[in-house]
Known about the structure:
This protein is of the alpha+beta class. Helix content is 33%, strand content 18%.
Amino acid sequence: MVGCQKQLLTGFAMMCCGMLVRSSCRAFLVAFCVTELLRGVDSMRDENRATGIGVGPGRFVKSDLHVHVPVDGVDIPRASTSYSRKEGGIFPAPVIPFSRVTGTDWHGEENNPGGEFGGRIITWDAVYDQSCSRWPKIFDDLKDQGFEFVVLTTHDITPPEDKQQEMIERCRNKNLACYTATELRHERDVLIGSRIQYALRCDSGGAHIGWDPLNGWLKTIQHPNALPSDRLDDEYYTHRANSSGPTVTGQEAGTPSSKDDRTTIEIFADWSAEALDKSGVTPDGELAGVLTSEPPGYTPKDGTAFAVNKWDAALSRGFKIWGVASGDSFAKSGQAVQERRLESLQAEWNASVKANNTKNMETLAEFIRSKPVGAGYIQIWLPEEEELSAWNLMDQVSKGQFYAVGNHHIGTSTVDIVSAQVSTDGTYTVKLASGSHDVTCEAVTNHGRVVTLQQEGADFSASVGAVCGSAGEDPFHCAYFRIQCKRPAVANPRYQYDFNYAWMQPHFLPNYVELERHFSDKPVHEFKAVVRKNKNAMQTIHNAMAKEVMQWEEASELEVMRTQCKSAEKCTAEVLKRAIQNSDQFSLENWDSRLFEVELGIDADVDQV
């Protein structure tokens, strides 16, 4: 549609110019028309390049595409609510834990060979899992952090359209632009028969998807590295570290592909980082993210809060997807994080409980339970002529007109971008705000290969020649490049989240079209190499898939029976299923309702039907 509009604009401008010249109209009108023509032609050069943010009149709008809010009809548990522990005892109120650590009164489990969390998988749970903050706190915190646009998100439950409009109206009354989305968690929808198979899969499209129910454009892979099973296969890093040069196939498990139909990926999601460094335990270096790579010259392997390599893996197989960041705000923090916060407020909490001060207890509970806002977000470029509206801002996101910010240590100095643009010769230049003396930037191309950039004044620039070098045997060793910048957020940083970041969107080179074509018929592996090479694991998967097919067939049969049995008395699903399996000439007209008064499970009785 955008391309069509540009062609129409160009055609109209040419016609306009011709008419103006023939009629000897005033010179400034001719100049205006020629300018519009040139603008139209220039904008058609490359529709897919995310260039020009911070160029010309306009401003950046601080935004977050993943902000959790309450759901009508699903009440936030009272501050005094307590949950049982799996190992015995209870969690102290007001902590709301994750389902898997609660007792059997709050969730169910089944054996799950090879899966996450000790070989067990949750089959049901009743633990609250929506926003842990109420609307007043949500709006106050967003305003305090300077947000102007957010996407209001619910877990699994998509509110009716009128309720979504009510939420948007709430925002409007607070001078905030808002959009709505649902975080769909695929593990909640998997049939029992395929749970084992699902747990062994590496979901390249993301187990959690931020989906836009209003227009269907936004499909964000959310916190993609939170589950070990969904992380980029170690095989990717092994292939990248090949001594004779990278042998990445683009089919390594966990690599997002165009088949997944996603638009954006959270390359930073503070949900994992918060749980690692605020739980009172020294984090595991690999989970927190080491600062060096093997071999040198590549982005380090992603810590759980990051998915930069996953992003580059997708881009490197011809899948254009924009990189975003989020704090997963107002959803519940990990129980260890909540318990630490409770400890810091224990005296005030005890005093409120003793005085039965429910208002203060609820206020404290919001702080203790909720993830804070501002740890990850995006800065959307809004041209001066555009109104600050959700529609215009989402349109800018769809074009990649923004940069992403990782800011785990809220309140520390961020990486502030003044502009990022690509010149006509392909040079990508990022201009930093003043006071950025401790910021470093680098260009990143296929498979996360890094080229360090030198600062010139406030600018960091990367030319095609400097990033790509001479052509090698691999025609796709450099089909795009992007720029990322960071600055220390703490003294003596040890982990990836000890820096604050700014990630610019990629600039696609002419050979990217060939890259897309090359991978169009090459699917990504569903299972990691360690699973594919394990005969027992693959047999388990085969059995689970066979069971899933059988369940699908049974469900289809039951649906047929429900349709045919609407008028039959005492028509039960089990009786009908067994009856229909024993007769090829089964029809409602031949049924006798008395025959359905049999006791279930007695074959002799069922055989009469």
